[in-house]
Amino acid sequence: MARIPAVEHSFAACPLPVHPGPSATGAGAVDADVAGAVLRTARAVLAERVTEASEIDASFAGDLAGRVADFTLDGGKRMRPRLLWWGMRACGAADTGSTAAALRLGVALELIQTCALIHDDVMDRSRLRRGKPAVHIGLAGQAGLSPDSERGSAFGTSAAVLAGDLALVWADDTVAETALPAPVRHRIRSIWRSMRTEMVAGQYLDLHGQATGGSSAARAIRTACLKSALYSVERPLTIGAALADADERTTAALRSAGRCAGIAFQLRDDLLGVFGDPARTGKPSGDDIREGKPTYLLAVARERAEATGDEGALAVLGHAVGNADVTEGDLADVRGVFEETGARAHVERKAERLRDHAVRRLGEGVDVDAHAGRQLLGLLHTVSGGRSGSSPDDTREHDDRAASARVLTPAEGGRVR
């Protein structure tokens, strides 16, 4: 492959602090544009980080620190900071101190996401992220190396690991330097410690499932909970509740709502990865099959085929899953197995039950008729693929009996501690 030219990093080239003015940090002003307020705060925080890096070494600042800053600022829907913000607001906080802290902690969550995405692209050997070369690809090109050469691949991969590590360090520093009352600081640091470890555990379970060729349905849900639901939805909501000094009952309701919505998101994402239109999803259909991802959808199909002795279905899955050279015909056969075993319908129903449970639990914790509660409800619908979100089946009727059923077993992560 031809050498990829170095990309000039706007942030590294011109790390100008953009500090939010007093009028931009009041709770009412932030309500009007949460993502914009987080972005302004991120620019200020990251300008300081890049400046500190430049005092250590210019090439380190330009090649790595500036790239981490640019990646964090460029793209993404700021969903985690928005969940944190509206979780806090729905619990009643609106003072200046909580507002400033929420924005800084939102930046920390964005940096954690930067770490996760950079490392995930390395582990999955992904070449693109947000329509641009993935960080490990870009770093190889910036060094004047082909990412397909042994030397270029080794350098790009190693440097990207360091870039992800740097993002994690900056996230931790941002949390540590955020002004908080002592009791609130203790609660948030406890949540933060748990979240970091859970994220790594989920990624490991995902890798382990790929290496060993699969996992049970319960294990797949557990992986989705740790890798995606907790750090993407539940923990941001819990941090917001902690900033508002919410009581245990409210916090438990938000945690349960966030966990269910987060797992529903992952289940629907798994469905879109197989049945979705690439023009709408932005990613090739069938990549999870090629990579051998141990999804809940795949686990359910296997378990049902094994239970009925469907050797044909098992043969199709055995040939295609984890096979980088699968054809479109092979992928069509896999989709057929998911349909015929009832796995697709089962996963859709489970995602719906999780979504409905999330909505009900949210209503038990906060006033969903108030402005902040409505905003939070809308975010959970979007995350979980409700009628305002992107779902493979938005028209299915609600099933009140299913919504009231227990949706997660302890083995799947159903206990909220």
From TrEMBL:
A biological process from GO: isoprenoid biosynthetic process
Amino acid composition bias (Basic and acidic residues), ranges on this chain: 393-403
Cofactor: Mg(2+)
InterPro entries per the UniProt record, alphabetical: Isoprenoid_synthase_dom_sf, Polyprenyl_synt, Polyprenyl_synt_CS
Keyword Protein transport: no
Domain of life (superkingdom): Bacteria
Region spans: Disordered: 382-417
Keyword Magnesium appears in the UniProt entry: yes
Keywords, alphabetical: Magnesium, Metal-binding, Transferase
One GO molecular-function entry: metal ion binding
Signal peptide per UniProt: none
Family: Belongs to the FPP/GGPP synthase family.
Protein name in UniProt: Polyprenyl synthetase family protein
Organism: Streptomyces arboris
Record lineage: Bacteria, Bacillati, Actinomycetota, Actinomycetes, Kitasatosporales
